[in-house]
Structure formats: structure tokens, C-alpha cells
């Protein structure tokens, strides 16, 4: 067993590391939820005639733009940020 001081350092490191991972997971779950809402709304608008697909297709660019690469640090957030939400709620939504 490491000495108590070393244990405390290990605990702080693990808290920061897992906090960053949890934050990234929560952000991803939130974005997925927003995309699902948008998807549902888009389908509803097309089915009910609120969105004319011919008009929407005419406004699309000729070529798709290449997605911008995201720096790994930007994607993960900073270590000092607090995790958001409860992991259990996101899991329930994913299973639904």
C-alpha cells in the first residue's frame, strides 16, 4: 500500500481524469439528444408539409464542406470543469 500522501495524489489525479471523461460523455449524450430531437422534428415537418423538401434541397450547397478537425483537448474539455448531470439518466435514454 502506498503512503497516505501518495494515495491522496493518486485520488486527485483519478478524480480529474475521470471528471474529464464524464464531462465528455455527458456532452456527447446531450448532443445526441439534440440531434434526435432535430431528426424527429424534421421528419414531422416533412410529413405534415411544413417543410417543402424541393425548396430545402435547392438551398443546399453544391459540395459538402469537409468537417473541421477538433483538437483532442477541445473535445475533452479542461480538467477543472465539473461533470454535468447524472450518468444513469443518459443510460436510460440510450436504452429507450
Q: What's the number of helices?
A: 4
What is the number of E strands?
0
Order of SSEs: HHHH
- Structural shape: elongated
> In this structure, how is the largest beta sheet organized?
none
Which stretches are low in confidence, meaning pLDDT under 50 for 5 or more residues running? Answer: 79-96
State the distance separating the first and last CA atoms: 43 Å
Beta fraction: under 5%
Structural class: mainly alpha
Mean pLDDT: 80
Q: Helical content, roughly?
A: 55-70%
Oligomeric state: single chain
Rg calculated over all Cα atoms? 21 Å
What does the model show?
This protein has 96 residues and is mostly helical. It is built from 4 helices and no strands. The longest helix has 45 residues, at 4-48. The chain starts with a helix and ends with a helix. The chain has a domain at 1-60. The model is unreliable at 79-96 (pLDDT under 50). It is 68% helix and 0% strand. The protein is elongated, with a radius of gyration of 21 Å. It has helices at residues 4-48, 53-58, 72-76, 87-95.
Amino acid at each position: 500500500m502506498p503512503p497516505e500522501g501518495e494515495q491522496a495524489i493518486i485520488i486527485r489525479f483519478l478524480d480529474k481524469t475521470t471528471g474529464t471523461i464524464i464531462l465528455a460523455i455527458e456532452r456527447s449524450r446531450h448532443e445526441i439528444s439534440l440531434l434526435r430531437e432535430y431528426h424527429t422534428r424534421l421528419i414531422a415537418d416533412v410529413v405534415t408539409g411544413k417543410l417543402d423538401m424541393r425548396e430545402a434541397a435547392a438551398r443546399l450547397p453544391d459540395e459538402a464542406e469537409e468537417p473541421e478537425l477538433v483538437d483532442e483537448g477541445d473535445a475533452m474539455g479542461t480538467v477543472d470543469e465539473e461533470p454535468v448531470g447524472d450518468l444513469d439518466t443518459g443510460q436510460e435514454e440510450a436504452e429507450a
